[in-house]
Amino acid sequence: MELGSREAFSRMGTLGIEEEFYIVDAEGRPTSGTDDLVYGRDPPAAVPEGFDHELFECTIEAQTETIEDPANAGEALATVREALVDHAAADGYQIAAAGLHPVAKWRELDHVRKPRYQAQLDRIQYPQHRNTTAGLHVHVGVDDADKAVWVANRLRWHCPVLLALSANSPFWNGFDTGLASARAKVFENLPNTGIPSAFDDFNAFQRYERRMVETKSIADRGELWFDVRPHTGHGTVEVRAPDAQRDPEVTLALAEYVHALVVDYAERYEDGESPPALRRELLDENKWRAIRRGHDAAFVDRDGEGTTPLGEIVDAECDRLGIDGIREVSESESGAARQRRIREASGVDALCADLLVEG
User: Binning pLDDT at 50, 70 and 90, where does residue 2 land?
Assistant: First the structure.
């Protein structure tokens, strides 16, 4: 039974970035039969841990090593992306990035044969069979388990903001969903997803985690797929809300924001601050607003009394935290808007080409 521990939370402020991508053919279409890319040869020297499939053979995850100094995040991310693109090219494949690939049709693509994923398909059935999603996950180290749970509770309000900034999946199964992030809506049809309830402390979270494993609701702690969670194995707070990104600068801006939030809230925890209690239903409403509107969303405020547009939230957060990356993301065309514009102006082939990741 795979469970973490309180002792895992020992380091403050480290950073890790996990990105999920699509393996595509020469025409930029997601393709199956890619086991050789992942398992058939040694990983590149720059990424000694290698890469791994996600649920489908056309999806692959790449992650940085633990980044001690967040100032080095750009270099670490570039190293992994370049290694992945070159590794794929050696077998004649390319790499594409989006929350959902616009032409991926789940009925026509193969699932991986790994026992872990086959067990999930058997247990969850239809929602997992169609799960062609690709996300961005950001880990920040926290040096105390109770602090990590407290910080994760606070980050729940920010998850819809991160999703809106990252919204990059308007198309699913080849059609326009009318959403900015269809990935988030497809993914939350799985169990143990979405914005979680708040936990009183680490003991409360660990009891829940243990109960879910012991009752065979999940196979291991990794199947708690919430938008934010304390990761009891890595000793981090993990934010899983954003769509995957083609542009590394957007990924870095989102990671910078998550890191700044975790460090800020960790300091507030040490100061004994009492967090506000916003109903989960209002957090879910904010997530829906992000899914539907992306950059054009306005969010229910933390006191539950009014709403504020994304741009105003971003300006306030940048000023408060001393960051700037998400301001540029907010002021730029969203991934969802870009995809729609390109498809309408130039067609699907041009859109598939635009989603390719550069090495």
Answer: low
Q: What percent of the chain has pLDDT over 70?
A: 99
CA distance 74 to 301: 32
Whether the per-residue pLDDT at 293 is higher than 80: the answer is yes
Spatial distance between the Cα atoms of 130 and 111, rounded to a whole number of angstroms: 10
CA distance 23 to 25: 7
Report the first-to-last Cα separation within the chain, whole angstroms.
39
pLDDT tens-place string over residues 13-35: 999 999 999 999 999 999 986 67
| CB neighbour list of residue 76: distance below 8 Å, 6 or more residues apart | 17, 64, 65, 67
Place of tokens 């407290």: 150
CA 266 from centroid of its chain's CA atoms: 21
What pLDDT digit, counting tens, does each position of 297-317 carry? 999 999 889 999 999 999 999
Q: Is 13 left (phi over 0), alpha (psi -120 to 50) or beta?
A: left
Query: Alpha-carbon distance 255 to 239, whole Å?
Result: 9
Across the range 219-240, mean pLDDT stands at 96
Q: Pull the structure tokens for residue 17.
A: 């970035």
Using a 10 angstrom Cβ sphere, with 0-12 exposed, 13-18 middle and 19 or more buried, the burial of residue 229 is: buried
Q: For residue range 178-221, list pLDDT tens digits in order.
A: 999 999 999 999 999 999 999 999 999 999 999 999 999 999 99
Task: For residue 59, give the H/E element and its range.
Answer: strand 59-63
- How many other C-beta atoms can be found within 10 angstroms of the C-beta atom of residue 154? 23
CA-angle at 23, arms to 354 and 292, nearest 5°: 55
- Give the residues across from 21 on adjacent strands: 60
CB 248 within 8 A of CB 147: no
What is the phi-psi region of residue 88: left when phi exceeds 0, alpha when psi lies from -120 to 50, beta otherwise? alpha
Whole-model pTM above 0.90? yes
Asked if 353 contacts 343 with a C-beta cutoff of 8 angstroms, the reply is no
Bridge-based pairing of strands 225-226 and 193-194 is parallel
CA distance 182 to 176: 9
Digit-coded pLDDT (tens) for 85-110: 999 999 899 999 999 999 999 999 99
